[in-house]
Amino acid sequence: MTQVRDLTAAQAADAVRDGKLSATELFDAYRDAAAADELNAYLYVAEEPNVSGGDLHGVPLAVKDLFCTKGVISQSGSKILEGYKPPYTATVVENLEKAGAPLLGKTNQDEFAMGSSNENSAFGPVQNPWDRERVPGGSSGGSAAAVAAGTAPWALGTDTGGSIRQPAAMCGIVGLKPTYGAVSRFGMIAFASSLDQAGPLTRDVTDAALLLGHMVSKDPCDATSIGRPDEIALPRSHKLDGIRLGRPDDLSTEGVEPGVMEAYERTLKLAEDLGATIETCHLPHADHGISAYYVIAPAEASSNLARFDGVRYGLRSNGGDLLSMYTHTRHDGFGAEVKRRIMLGTYALSSGYYDAYYGRAQRVRTLIATDFKQAFENVDFVVTPTAPTTAFKIGELADDPLAMYLNDYFTVPMSLAGIPAISIPNGLSDGRPTGFQLAGPAFSESRILDAAYALEQAIGFDGSETRK
Ligand code: GLN
Description:
Layout: H1 2-6, H2 9-17, H3 23-35, E1 42-45, E2 61-64, H4 91-98, E3 103-107, H5 141-149, E4 154-159, H6 165-171, E5 174-177, E6 197-202, H7 205-215, E7 244-248, H8 258-273, E8 277-281, H9 289-304, H10 322-333, H11 336-349, H12 354-375, E9 381-385, H13 401-405, H14 412-417, E10 421-429, E11 432-439, H15 445-459
Parallel strand pairs: 2-3, 2-4, 7-8, 7-9
Antiparallel strand pairs: 1-3, 4-6, 5-6, 5-10, 9-11, 10-11
The chain binds glutamine.
């Protein structure tokens, strides 16, 4: 069956459409591979396809645990939701099922999407298929590892501050965070509602365009969803003629692994060969992104996670009275990182501190969004390395939350600004994948995909060595 799984998702869809491959054969090949997964990437694997036909012709889809899937476990990587089966399916998953992508399985993730390594999952860490002793990145680590290992043709992740792009970079695949509002959040178990956005994790840029095109919708169940004004076209461009790439001069490169920096510089040269110009651009407030994000995201999380009280969902621990039942449930059900964020967020929102922390962080957020707006007056895209380092060892940063937070340095500013950004495989450093990030103005996904496609062809990265 290796041959079937050698196809990209778009190729597999074409093969089924042309009658060269049956959808059943395709599903079975992936179901067997997912069931035999050794990376702890899956928390559930489906037995039978739940849909067929459509534009996507039955190409199966791995879905991050935090998307609600009717009658199928949806736990957001948390013990507090262990075994929880929701009564409805998230809009984005439903859109894709209607388009003909059956659910292949649910993938492991950091608890409530809080993390950059997948080590915060209540169901154990995921291993990186490039090196089993290393993390796959996070929080969509299971989705990224599954796609990189070839046990899924493609997968859904979510990105709040980098959780699609950073694991994509660390696993040598493509990850795209759409414009905030392009995709419905209905049925996504919320982390930080003003930042959360679902997006594709795929083997190549074409697959990302194909999947994203079927995800977007304006959904009456999510008032912040706006859908898209235009169709997402499949990318074809092999040139970057006239494209201006902005290299931010005020994001620090201190702490960036030398091999990651070399790969970044190499790709900027390639881009010039393809006709692009490299310009210096200014994002004077982006350096404060991490500080603002780690106030705003925990603040929203502390409010969103208040609903897990032992009454309505999942785990309930016994206590004497109602209050002690709440306390025991939350004590037993949440992991250490989640508790840390709830405490940080509750503190930042408490009376007397609200303006000093949350209010100021929101002002920084506005300044960062304005930085990008001004930068895009002079350049088409802002380009950075996706993550400062390649995949680190499991356990290496576990006791150092601040070092872990710094992994989001290059991805958080775009999240705060609500703009789309993609990470594409950018060659190896020390034998491990690195990522190249392109960010553009709101709703520039088609242009980002086009430019990313041209770069992808020029970089010529071959991720097949991890797919067995
Ligand atoms: N690593 C970041 C965090 O822990 C981003 C997570 C995400 O995008 N879901 O908050």
